[in-house]
Specification:
Helix content: 40-55%
Number of helices: 13
Distance between the termini: 65 Å
CATH superfamily of the largest domain: Spore Coat Polysaccharide Biosynthesis Protein SpsA, Chain A
CATH class of the largest domain: Alpha Beta
Largest sheet: 9 strands, mixed
CATH architecture of the largest domain: Alpha-Beta Complex
Radius of gyration: 21 Å
Order of helices and strands: EHEHEHEEHHEEHEHHEHHHHH
Structural class: alpha/beta
Strand content: 15-25%
């Protein structure tokens, strides 16, 4: 196990699709990975299933007594990552599935990944439902993706992305950590931007990740819309304050306008200087209109 450069980390809590996840890891054509499974105080013992697919004990199993995922999923990811010694890691949702050549393609492209100094690797993904049926097409990008463009696809086009479709360089995680937004919603988007640290994101289309969207997970549930909205507001605010220079102009204008909307309709504090942003964007007419804008936001003018 010492020669492996890649850790596959599964934060386990729900049994319902876990066997399919384990089966996809056990089916890898290239075995050069170390498996870490962190049990987030689940009521369902996963051990019989793990033993079925990894009978030789070739994995690291951590049985936590306190549930952290219920507070914030990123906290559960982080405590498992404390055990990881490999150079790269992949966090695989306990209901998601990777194609059998996932590890193989990663190592095959490693020379280019190293040459281009990439810190984040992204795989082609599609959504699947409870029955494992594809409900979207597979994503497809250029081999080298600019991080500003990558988050711009999400901001401008609402394109799909998930944590499970990425491999990260561990030293970048140690440098930046995961940001704790409600439900860890948008945490992965910000991580991809920060961990890449202005280096290209390397895209692999020949291997696939199947991301499950069901009533069993955060993405598919509809009873958490308020928390998702709060996470969106918080993550956009964070991007404006910390990364405005790392976004495309179109993306920055879009999320600034979103924040103005939230301020007006939900009385959410802006938390950043409109003057500073407009000056950076050279939107001088917007600067001249700022007194009126603030009066409107304070509901003094209509």
């Amino acid at each position: 196990m010492g020669m492996n450069k890649l850790a596959i980390v599964i934060p386990y809590y729900k049994m319902v699709f876990f066997e399919e996840t384990l089966k996809s890891v056990a089916s890898q054509t290239d075995k050069r990975f170390t498996l870490y499974i962190g049990n987030d105080a689940s009521p369902d013992d996963p051990f019989p299933l793990i033993d079925k697919y990894f009978p030789d004990g070739s994995y690291n199993y951590i049985d936590y007594k306190e549930n952290l995922g219920g507070k914030n999923l990123a906290m559960q990811w982080e405590r498992i990552l404390e055990n990881v010694t490999e150079e790269w890691f992949h966090i695989l949702g306990d209901d998601d599935v990777i194609s059998e050549n996932f590890v193989e393609e990663f190592y095959k492209d490693m020379p280019v990944i190293i040459q281009k100094e990439c810190n984040v690797v992204k795989f082609s993904q599609c959504w699947i439902n409870e029955n494992g049926e594809r409900i979207t097409d597979f994503t497809d990008y250029e081999q080298l993706i600019d991080p500003a463009d990558n988050i711009g696809y999400k901001i401008m086009k609402a394109e799909r992305s998930s944590l499970s479709e990425h491999i990260f360089r561990k030293k970048q995680y140690l440098k930046f950590n995961f940001k704790k937004f409600p439900l860890a919603w948008a945490t992965d988007d910000v991580a991809v931007l920060e961990f890449s640290e202005r280096k290209y994101i390397y895209f692999i289309r020949n291997s696939k990740v199947l991301v499950r969207v069901s009533n069993e997970n955060i993405s598919g549930r509809t009873d958490n819309q308020l928390e998702k909205k709060n996470a969106k507001i918080a993550s956009e605010k964070y991007l404006i304050k910390k990364h405005y220079k790392n976004l495309t102009k179109e993306s920055l204008i879009k999320i600034i306008n979103n924040q103005i909307y939230y301020r007006y309709h939900f009385n959410t504090p802006l938390g950043f200087s409109l003057f500073k942003m407009y000056y950076y964007l050279r939107l001088y007419k917007k600067i001249l209109a700022l007194p009126k804008t603030y009066l409107i936001l304070c509901k003094i003018l209509k």
